[in-house]
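Forwarding the complex inputs:
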Amino acid sequence: MKAIVPYKKKGGKSRLSPLLSPSEREELAECMLEDVVSTLSEAGVDASIVSDEGLNVVLNKIIAKSAEPVLIIMADLPLIRSEHIREIISSKEDVVISPGRGGGTNILFLRDPSAFRVDYYGMSFLDHLQIAKDKGLSLKVYESFYVGCDVDEVDDLAELLIHGKGKAAEYLRSIGVSLQMTGGRVRVKR
Amino acid sequence: MKAIVPYKKKGGKSRLSPLLSPSEREELAECMLEDVVSTLSEAGVDASIVSDEGLNVVLNKIIAKSAEPVLIIMADLPLIRSEHIREIISSKEDVVISPGRGGGTNILFLRDPSAFRVDYYGMSFLDHLQIAKDKGLSLKVYESFYVGCDVDEVDDLAELLIHGKGKAAEYLRSIGVSLQMTGGRVRVKR
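Prediction (whole assembly, two chains):
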């Protein structure tokens, strides 16, 4: 089982800039990647990190020549647990899609990768559903609160502080990021 | 099996006001309630609607004298499905908590309600975990993307439009609310 993890090494996570400096954002991104990679490893899956530049071209090249199942998983899912990975890769369906907030695809599992083509960016969840349908592939939506939490914005950090148990949550706490109730709502402050 | 559904009849969902008029917000809230009640009914559970005013006092009065299990479920969970309800009420644990975004508790299942006390508002998810621990009750976190989607803000409507199949999603589409890609992000527009 091969897992592909797209990752932006430099200058990513710009929407966290209201709270974190560029080097802190890089550090957090690296911690999240480590959380994802170690969760994959717990589930017996090896991770290949690829650059997220020209993601669709890169991934479609890889899957076109893949004879074995492929798991594509985002690097910013610090709440993911090994049970999620095990459940997804043991699904019977040709394609398993796990949605993120705002129409994203946080995990895509392809039993026969060469039969599919990926279309990330935008509302990729709906696009991937359509591609599976067009290609006559059986499909499962794997819906999970934890898998659905990709960390892009300051509000997302609240989820990491509330539910996180890994390196990314620990790092965030170590630099003094914490939760605060303001007007009946949870906010992230520093 | 009794389900209690707290509901604000008038003037709720004020954070949707950038997009919806007061009467539209009421209509949407009613559609969401109907989606929740019909999902409960599919799972064989009768719903009692209670006012959300002084919620903790109201609920703690009810559960103090409940000899049977109680399911407390929010009225703004339009993506909920009967499988969720069935899985939650068949759990072996004393307490099942399903988190919402921002530290909320979207569903709380109490096998022995009189042994518990609820503490909604604020970071109720963490508070409820602590209460279960303090009272020596066994606990399960039931995490679900769909159960976790409570609709409070304009951005939440995107989830309803992307994943919704019930009355609330239908209503939203009928008044011309739709999705739009702006700067690589999904936005709700009208």
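The CA atoms of residues 98 and 143 of chain B lie 6 Å apart.
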